[in-house]
Amino acid sequence: MMVPILLTLTNVYEGASIRSEADSWKYFQQGDHVRLYSKQGFMRGLEDAGFRVNQLGIDYFGADLFDKHGIDPRSVLCVVETLSR
Prior knowledge:
Radius of gyration: 15 Å
Mean pLDDT: 87
Shape: globular
Low-confidence stretches: none
Strand order of the largest sheet: 1-2
Order of helices and strands: EHEHEHHE
Distance between the termini: 22 Å
Strand content: 15-25%
Number of helices: 4
């Protein structure tokens, strides 16, 4: 999943009343978005939906792979798996 995560947020920011594309750009940095996620809020949402979240970085994947795919070396990729219920 790719979602807009803003590391300075502590909660998910949603604006249900924001309808125009111009306001979406102003508040969500994209014309078709309706929310910005905090990292914690994104992780919590995945876990609440029944996923285990594994946070993997450059130490796991290797610098060559990050470089090949243009991934910032500070990035953490969240790999999820379903939990048995």
